Amino acid sequence: PKLVIATHNAGKLREIRDLLAPFGIECVGAAELNLPEPEEIGNTFVDNAELKAREAADLSGLPALADDSGLSVDALHGNPGIFSARWAEDEAGNRDFTRAMERVWQEVEAAGPDAGHDAHFVCALSLAWPDGSIESFEGKVHGTLVWPPRGDKGFGYDPMFIAAGMDQTFAEIEPADKHAISHRAEAFRKLIDALA
Ligand code: ITT
Fold first, then answer.
1. Cα separation of 89 and 77, whole Å?
2. 32/26 Cα distance (integer angstroms)
3. Is 19 exposed, middle or buried (0-12, 13-18, 19+ CB in 10 A)?
4. How far is it, in rounded angstroms, from Cα 55 to Cα 52?
């Protein structure tokens, strides 16, 4: 079976390939198929994952899996949340996560010490079929933000996030250790359970 991974984010694609590796499913990335990046106009992670998966399945005629994810910070009332990628973009649309992490930390500091440093990552996965059916699954991991960022593994906001019970950031630990506890891994467990 062939599955379209409806993402243009290389870090996500790498993790999704890792998480699907045990199942022997042939995966093809959206960029390899020259699929466009749909505008993410939804108000929730699930809405955005569904619109990306639906479009990729319709355009390719293949089942498509999309991931919409982000970092929700308690002190920032859940921001950047579904805007996590946008917080990294400049006017030209280029992404710089050093900048995005700086903005998050500045706003956390501005919220004052009582607001705390708690945050969580969310991942919504949607699996869309060419016949129109669609299923979605959500995973979460709670943790704490730290400054300065640490580590060069992972992607996005990983260097400033320490999962509950750990003392290293998601960018300092091995991918396999992130996959044991991450928001994405939890969403995948739910997806696999539903398909089994
Ligand atoms: P696609 O829509 O093409 O999949 P994207 O990067 O635009 O790629 P999102 O809209 O879902 O995807 O943006 C989510 C952002 O949240 C992403 O760019 C990361 O910076 C961040 N993010 C998501 N999961 C993460 C993780 O496991 N570790 C660190 N940052 C993560």
1. 21
2. 13
3. buried
4. 5
- Report the domain count for the chain: 1
CA of residue 176 to ligand 1 center, whole Å: 19
One-letter amino acid of 47: D
CA of 5 to the centre of ligand 1 (A): 14
Q: Are 53 and 129 in contact (CB under 8 A)?
A: no
Residue 150 pLDDT = 98
68, 74, 118, 158: the active-site residue: 68
In short, whether 83's Cβ falls inside 6 Å of ligand 1 is no
Q: What is the mean pLDDT of each run of 10 residues along the chain (196 residues)?
A: 93 95 93 94 98 97 98 98 97 95 98 96 98 98 98 97 98 97 98 90
Residue 122 sits in which domain range? 2-195
Which pLDDT belongs to residue 196? 79
Instruction: Determine whether the shortest distance from the Cβ of 55 to ligand 1 is under 6 A.
Output: no
CATH number, position 17: 3.90.950.10
